[in-house]
Amino acid sequence: MTQEELNKIIEKDSYLKERENPSSHDVALYLGEVNHHCPLCGKALIYREQKKKNRLFQIAHIYPNRPTIAQYETLKDVERLGGNSESFENKIAICLDCHSTQDYHTTVEDYNHLLDIKKRLLTESALNNAIRSLDVERDVSIVISRLTNISEMELADLNYEPVYLTNKFENSELLIKTRIESYVHIYFPYVRDCLKEIDGKNGFNQQVLAGQIRNCYLKMRDRSSNKSMIFYQMADWLKNKTQSTSREACEIVIAFFVQNCEVFDEITK
Ligand SMILES: [Zn+2]
After folding, report:
1. Which of 77, 169, 196, 255 has the fewest CB atoms within 10 Å around its CB?
2. 3-state DSSP assignment of residue 92
3. In a shared domain, residues 72 and 26
4. Which of 69, 89, 106 is the last residue of a domain?
5. Residue 158 sits in the same domain as residue 202
6. Which pLDDT belongs to residue 262?
7. How far is the CA of 202 from the centre of ligand 1 (A)?
8. Region 186-206: what's the mean pLDDT?
9. What distance in angstroms lies between residue 104's CA and the mean position of ligand 1's atoms?
10. How confident is the model at residue 95 (pLDDT cuts 50, 70, 90)?
């Protein structure tokens, strides 16, 4: 095969895309995926002692985005991961030494070895996410079941005045908006079903709670325009009242009411 022939093949092969530099967010994902250690030799990919993080790694293509003639012929029949060479599935963080070996001496065995590692990492992270979301759901259901124990008098506590501790939540409106949106997106049906189940039990009235949260918000808003602070204080209140160990679960429940009551309408729209 000549270089010219290969160039034509590369042009027609829709899997092979121009190299894209990973964003710093992507780099963090790749490093997290391998637990900051080279998945081939085990070397640490970052010197933690030094102030400046030393780059001891590269984000490598598993299937090369621009194969040489030798690579193209060697890797003729191998499996490729992801939609194209720039997909998350086709890249992995490895150390500089392993990267140069991988690049210059690609064998089918080496390729399949790295491919298998990446497949295992992808399965593990999918499993972790599923397990994590089950844990969060369990915590949410505990928080909601304990809502029935909060008396109306205690609900009135929600009308407390906001505390001006710091301004650290300033300029975080977008952040809180994104957070509420993603909670609502992921957990809305689950929270709604849990609430439906306890409505009317033990005198619990969802409308009363929703109304109380709305009043609380309105009163706090008169004193502070910082919606993030209000949101976190409401989540704190719920965490205290339900003795929940999961702050995230409490934020999810508050996000539901906040969204459902349209009290945060300006920021959730
Ligand atoms: Zn290595």
Report:
1. 77
2. strand
3. yes
4. 106
5. yes
6. 47
7. 60
8. 81
9. 14
10. very high
Chain centroid to Cα 9, Å, comes to 38
Work out whether the CA dihedral 159, 164, 168, 174 comes out positive or negative.
Answer: positive
- The phi, psi pair for 6, rounded to 5°, reads -65, -40
CA of 34 to the centre of ligand 1 (A): 11
Between the CA of 61 and the centroid of ligand 1 the distance, in Å, is 14
Give the C-alpha separation, 59 to 36, whole Å. Answer: 12
Q: Which residues pair with 190 in a beta bridge?
A: none
User: What does the pLDDT read at residue 170?
Assistant: 46
Q: Ligand 1 center to residue 108 CA distance, Å?
A: 18
DSSP, collapsed to helix, strand or coil, labels residue 57 as strand
User: Does 47 have pLDDT greater than 70?
Assistant: no
Buried b (16+ CB within 10 A) or exposed e, 69-95: eebbebbeeeebbbeebbbbbbbbbbb
Is residue 262 assigned to a domain? yes
Same domain, 86 and 186: no
Q: What is the pLDDT of residues 21-42, one digit of tens each?
A: 888 878 888 988 998 899 999 9
Distance 150 CA to ligand 1 centre (A): 55
Number of domains forming the structure of the chain: 2
Q: Is the pTM of this model over 0.85?
A: no
Q: Is residue 114 one of the residues assigned to a domain? A: no
For the stretch 212-249, pLDDT in tens is 777 776 777 666 666 777 777 788 888 888 888 888 88
In a domain, 112, yes or no: no
126 within some domain? no
Pairing of β 91-95 and β 57-61? antiparallel
Q: Classify residue 161 by burial, with Cβ atoms within 10 Å: 0-12, 13-18, 19+.
A: exposed
Domain span at residue 206?
Answer: 133-268
What is the rounded average pLDDT of the residues 187-206? 81
Q: How far is the CA of 14 from the centre of ligand 1 (A)?
A: 30
